[in-house]
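R.M. (postdoc): so does anyone remember the format we settled on? I'll just put the structure tokens first.
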């Protein structure tokens, strides 16, 4: 590979971004090949992660609405301050785009981090967390249904989804198949 061509690529993508693909001292061709291969891995994971995120969001929304006996559970349940702020931020964003605030718009505007928070110890004292576990994860084996086990899985999924969404390096992950 012509070094000028590689330098142009490095100027566009930044040395810092490409350096993770050269950590073991490989040449420029291998570095660019790894970068392109990583993009393909990200592309291949995106549909599954999309389905995961939409499914998680929708099952949690349904379980929380059933528990609160109303669709606007996010205005009624005792959410922590972070979650309340995220709901308000979602409402502001919807308004800013000139749209009316509806349940479906709020739900779709909330981030994956918002949803995975329900599966952390932050909500372990809230009765709705056990309802979520029973309703949404009833097919998960009992030994994997604890909040700590679920939190590990969903935090890994959130991290993977964020890395894929930003085309960050994945080719070094040894347990990507898990």
């Amino acid at each position: 590979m012509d070094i000028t061509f590689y330098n142009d690529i490095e100027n566009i993508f930044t040395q810092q971004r490409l350096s993770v693909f050269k950590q073991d001292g490989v040449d420029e061709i291998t570095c660019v090949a790894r970068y392109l291969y990583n993009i393909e891995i990200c592309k291949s994971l995106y549909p599954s992660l999309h389905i995961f995120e939409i499914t998680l969001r929708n099952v949690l929304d349904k379980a929380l609405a059933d528990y609160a006996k109303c669709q606007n559970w996010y205005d009624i349940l005792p959410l922590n301050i972070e979650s309340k702020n995220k709901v308000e931020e979602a409402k502001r964003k919807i308004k800013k785009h000139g749209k009316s605030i509806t349940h479906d718009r709020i739900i779709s505007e909330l981030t994956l981090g918002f949803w995975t928070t329900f599966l952390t110890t932050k909500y372990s004292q809230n009765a709705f967390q056990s309802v979520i576990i029973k309703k949404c994860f009833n097919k998960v084996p009992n030994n994997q249904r604890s909040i700590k086990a679920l939190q590990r899985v969903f935090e890994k999924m959130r991290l993977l989804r964020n890395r894929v969404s930003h085309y960050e390096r994945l080719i070094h992950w040894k347990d990507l198949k898990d």
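R.M.: ...and that's the designed sequence above, right after the tokens. Also worth knowing: The chain has a mean pLDDT of 92. The CA atoms of residues 19 and 148 lie 35 Å apart.
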